[in-house]
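[RESIDUES AND BACKBONE]
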Amino acid sequence: MTLWLSAGIIFTFLAIVVILFKWGNLQCVGVTPVKTFTFIAILFTSGLDVGLIMFPLTEFAGYADIKASPEYAFANPLAIEFGFWGFLIWGFYFLTCFYFCVIEPKVKFFEIPWVKLLNNIIIIGTCAFTAYLLLSNLPWYLPNLGDGSTIIPSFYLVVFAAICFAVYSSTSLKYVRFLSITTTWMFIALIAFMWSATFIFGDSSVSSFTNKLGLIGEYFTNLNHFILPLNDYHEFYLFWWFAWSIMIGQFTSRFVGGLKTYQVLAAMLVFPSIPIALWFGVLYHYHDAGISTEGIKNFAMVFVGIVFVINSLDSLIRLYTDNLNLTVKRLGMRNYMLFNIAALSLLTLLFKLEFIQIQWVGALVIGLFLSCALYIGYNKFKTVSNIDSSPKDNTIDFSKIETAG
């Protein structure tokens, strides 16, 4: 699996270099373009899930234990955490976003029946993994509801409610912009609340926080360490990013609003990384200073985490139901709701039973990447070589989002 993953990573970054060289100044326009801030909000909230909120506090100690994991010795725990979530890794999303915005309309690889089926299996499976992550982390963040380690019926109800809400919100594309912008502002508010709380209780100072945040600089000075997998846990993260990349590219490509290719790459690498860095800096300060997150802080993190899950599931449900023509128009509202709720709930339980693993999904995505490249090289090389613009039917009209179904 490590060799397969490494091949996928090398292919991804080489493909990005080729795209920048050939189409760096091409204007990218999606079928439902939105303004840049909205595009970034959609990208950020759709491209991340509850793990961003809940994982770091459970992981810093492991990254600091270089006796048990000497491979982490090259950088501090905050830089390691950022490296698993920020900056370079967002290039995966850029590759698929550009492909689905500019190349796929000419190539139509994802309209081949077996590819279409596999693609949607990947999307549905990753949706369920997102719900499973919420379920598996709730005991750690809400210990007052249980013993701090066991998943109790209340946690199943929380996840089930999130799935139901997401399925309902996926019934209209107009909810995407509202959910994305709302989630973005809620996340910013969470960062501000968690940061200010350390001042209120006398646990912090501006200088101590900025010093902690500065530790992220070790990520950039050791960037080469993060390209290929460090260990099995890093492999898990990288496969996870691959699993997400193909569907996030499909979804976000709809909303690109006229940015040039190099600007899309810059936006994807830089803008999501800023709030991620701030959030991780706050959480690392809590970890390093031994500040408790019990009570309202844990509740706030769980609440925003649930909103992230709803936002992500909304986007992905919309994507696979459109791809499979399992829309509200075709099935009716009741059948649409029942089908998607039942399917995602069942698959979430399969992840809980470890019947499915996200690494398998990521491996399938790498297979699709390489298959697509071979298909283009064999059947569509001249067609792709002649691409000099986004599809002609895609025009910059920001009002389209208002009338989209």
Observations:
- The two ends are 41 Å apart (CA to CA).
- The chain is about 70% helix and 0% strand.
- Residues 142 and 298 are 7 Å apart (CA to CA).
- The mean pLDDT is 87.
